[in-house]
Amino acid sequence: MYINMEKTLKINIPDIDFEEMVNDCIKDIRDDDKRNRINNSKSFILSTSSAYKNAVKGGCLYKEKVDIKITGGATRDDMIYLYEKRLVESKNGRKYYDKIKANAPMGKCPICDYNLVDTIDHYLPKTIFYQYAITVENLLPECAKCNKNKTDKMAYNRIEELIHPYFDDFDNDVWLHASIDKNAGDPFGFKYGVEKPQTWDEEKFNRAKNHLSVYQLDSLYMILAASEINKELLKLKGHYLISRDKKPLKEIVNISLEVEKGINRNSWKTAMLQCIYDNDWFWDTFIPQFLS
């Protein structure tokens, strides 16, 4: 039986009845004026889901207006209250918050694919685009580190729009690449960056580079690879000490590489293994010295 273990940056939008979620968040608000304002704005709040999706499909989410007047009378503070006090903290709303968090495959952050999900991030910052404070499509399961690195950064053009795990598909091509840095780490380190696939236009290429930079994934992956390479070298040395034959070592790396590709073709580990598999200096100079 074939089991698909592939992990990608793209994840499904949580299966949540938005109207039911809004009703549950409004329920039991004790402040009569606040509850009435939000109730009067419920139709507007519900319309944000389709407005958001239309903006994404048009490639113009960055053009969304800030400081808008919400139809019905709800205020900026009301919308933030709906998220912070009702969706996050109230018994009625928390079940939806937890469902969004649990939507990440295997509980891992879809941004870094390393840390576990422990929070929800607003793709469009709630303090600026408060109309989308509880819009499901704007709520992403993430780790606290990625959330912190992103801050409340706004995109002022399409290139500055970060990869959106619900809508963007960046997984059909290999774009994350690693290169050996002989002057970093012991015995060496890696640098991470984006290489442009032939099928990509400049816009998609620059979005991927911006994504890597804003979330500081290049730095994270460099640290992870520096630790992982020592494990790989010990594995190779162990095989060599048993067989006293260098020839199978490259195939051993290739087996690990194919496994990682099957899980995530754009993971930091896939890029690291591809790098050492392809690198002549690694096989012709480093390995003979390492095994001697």
Spell out the blueprint of helices and strands.
Elements: H1 18-26, H2 32-40, H3 42-57, H4 76-87, H5 91-102, E1 119-122, E2 139-142, H6 144-150, E3 176-181, E4 189-194, H7 202-214, H8 217-243, H9 249-263, H10 268-278, H11 280-291
Antiparallel strand pairs: 1-2, 3-4
Helix pairs in contact: 1-4, 9-10
Radius of gyration: 23 Å
* Number of DSSP E strands: 4
Q: What class, by secondary structure content?
A: mainly alpha
**Oligomer designation:** single chain
Helical fraction: 40-55%
Order of helices and strands: HHHHHEEHEEHHHHH
How many H/I helical runs? Answer: 11
The largest sheet is: 2 strands, antiparallel
What is the molecular shape? elongated
**What would the average pLDDT be, to the nearest integer?**
94
Through-space gap between termini: 43 Å
Strand order of the largest sheet: 1-2
Binned strand content: 5-15%
Unreliable runs: 1-5
Describe this entry's structure for a reader.
The chain has 292 residues and is mainly alpha-helical. Helix content is 49%, strand content 7%. The chain has eleven helices and four strands. The strands form two sheets. The chain has a two-stranded antiparallel ribbon with strand order 1-2. Strands 3-4 form a two-stranded antiparallel sheet. Helix 1 crosses helix 4 and helix 9 packs antiparallel against helix 10. It is elongated. The two termini are 43 Å apart. The N terminus is likely disordered.
